[in-house]
Design a protein that fits this description.
GO terms for molecular function: metal ion binding; oxidoreductase activity, acting on paired donors, with oxidation of a pair of donors resulting in the reduction of molecular oxygen to two molecules of water. This protein is mostly helical and 487 residues long. The protein contains 21 helices and 8 strands.
């Protein structure tokens, strides 16, 4: 049972809320969402949601059954959410079963998309049931034991080469081992953030805080807040923080107009600095990714400073304090300041492999805004690409080269994603969706081409903007009366 402050008494009389009433109440400020034809009021819970407020706000006023089921553990489905139920949901007043309207008038494009979404969602839920029955949501702890031994080996090598090193090559090798350790341990922290290791919120949060905060200096809470939003509004230019990288990158020309980021809560302006970097973004892609970890430090600290309601804030602040004690002490063992500076840059910049891997699956994919009528599964497959690689190389990618499958089933342990691939291919064939799968080289080519295509439009955009500005000024001059001009 949730805390007393968030408890909602079950209604003694069952209510029914229609779509129009739902829209009206949400416009008036109520936090209402629909799950499995039930309406839930989350006004008192939204500030305590472990995944942050935005993950809920992007679901207000609509059916988010698939998103909810994909991102939450079983005990939330079965018990916790029931305390917030207020009514049954009636999608259309004249049609409780939400059958497509035929005969009386032709269907709109939105109605057609909704009908398709119903079909896709039903098939997606059947697929999820099959995967569960085949035990692909169950954790293989032996796999995690092997992973942990790999992490321990890398970290031990970094320590030994640092402390007992006698030349530059030893210290650089130590820095590379530490970079690889951070790269690999991020996969484990990722699973903890999705609650897919022990399937216990407390245990997985503890694992995540230890790996991310104590050993990596990054906030797992910040990552969850950002990442859950990314999973719900994948590749949406205005809402998805994972494709909002001005002034360095723009994955769509839609960004040229400037926009208000709902995640960052600020205007994203395509100013002169952004125009310069975006013009060369296809060349700067890999170099910029090398500095990604420094940005994550800043984001982590800002999150913990600004999120007083985050339930694990004290634990994470303690974890970051420990990190900023052991890592500087670790650097102090090096013989010179030049070596310390070199060590910092090598250990941080070579984690770019992780940043490239994650963005690789999204930067070259669709950024269209198809609205709430599109099904969750269709949106995930439209906006995400899987990277093909041989089985023996799975350890390097951590299993997250299967990003499309991961987006369909975020709580599936990574080591089961490859086994789920044949099921997903069959599902796509059944419902007529495209499963994007490309080799590593081809994937990089797709992202490079996508970034270049946007970069090539910068000059054209500036020329058009300049021309429009000139026309506006000329129109203003013409509008001034002759008497005013003489004055």
């Amino acid at each position: 049972m949730p805390p007393e402050s968030t408890y909602v008494e079950p209604l003694t009389k069952k209510n029914v809320i229609s779509r129009s009433e739902l829209e009206t109440r949400c416009k008036a400020g109520e936090i209402l969402i629909v799950i499995n034809q039930k309406v839930y009021k989350l006004d008192k819970w939204i500030n305590h949601h472990p995944g942050g407020q935005l993950a809920i706000r992007h679901c207000i006023g609509r059916d988010c059954t698939d998103e909810f089921m994909a991102l939450h553990p079983d005990y939330v489905h079965e018990k916790k959410i029931k305390y917030f139920e207020i009514a049954d949901y009636l999608p259309k007043e004249s049609d409780p079963e939400f059958a497509p309207i035929v005969g009386a008038r032709s269907r709109s494009s939105e109605e057609i998309l909704e009908a398709q979404s119903v079909k896709v969602s039903a098939a997606y839920r059947r697929l999820e049931t099959r995967l569960r029955s085949d035990h692909l949501f169950e954790t293989n702890y032996t796999n995690y034991a092997w992973e942990f031994s790999r992490y321990l080996t890398l970290f031990t090598m970094a320590i030994v080469l640092n402390i007992y090193g006698t030349c530059t090559m030893h210290y650089i090798a130590s820095a590379l081992c530490l970079a690889m350790f951070w790269h690999q341990v991020s996969f484990f922290a990722h699973d903890a953030g999705h609650n897919s290791i022990s399937h216990s919120l407390e245990i997985d949060n503890g694992i995540g805080i230890f790996l991310a905060d104590f050993l990596g200096g990054l906030s797992i809470g910040w990552w969850k807040k950002s990442h859950y939003v990314h999973h719900i509004v994948t590749n949406h230019p205005i809402h998805d923080p994972d494709i909002q990288h001005l002034p360095f990158f723009a994955v769509t020309t839609r960004i040229f107009q400037g926009f208000f980021s709902t995640y960052h809560q600020k205007e994203m302006v395509f100013d002169r600095v952004a125009q310069f970097f975006v013009s060369y973004q296809h060349y700067l892609y890999y170099p910029v990714m090398m500095f990604g970890r420094f940005n994550l430090y800043v984001q982590s600290m800002m999150f913990l400073a600004k999120e007083p309601n985050y339930p694990y804030r004290k634990q994470e602040m303690f974890g970051l304090m420990i990190y900023w004690i052991w890592y500087p002490y670790f650097l102090k063992q090096l013989p010179t300041w030049n070596m310390i500076i070199a060590y910092v840059f090598v250990s941080h910049m070579f984690t770019f492999m992780l940043h490239v891997q994650i963005t690789l699956s999204h930067f070259g994919m669709s950024t269209e805004e198809l609205g709430d009528a599109e099904s969750f599964a269709a949106k995930m497959l439209r906006t995400t690409m899987d990277v093909d690689c041989p089985t023996w190389l799975d350890w390097f990618h951590g299993g997250l080269q299967f990003q499309a499958i991961h987006h369909l089933f975020p709580r599936m342990p990574r080591h089961n994603l490859r086994a789920a691939q044949p099921y997903v291919i069959e599902f796509c064939e059944e419902v007529g969706l495209t499963y994007h799968l490309h080799g590593f080289t081809k994937s990089n080519e797709i992202v490079f081409t996508a970034l270049k295509d946007v970069a090539d439009q910068v000059g054209f955009f500036l020329e058009v903007t300049k021309h429009e500005a000139k026309e506006f000024v000329d129109a203003q001059k013409i509008a001034i009366p002759e008497s005013k001009k003489k004055q």
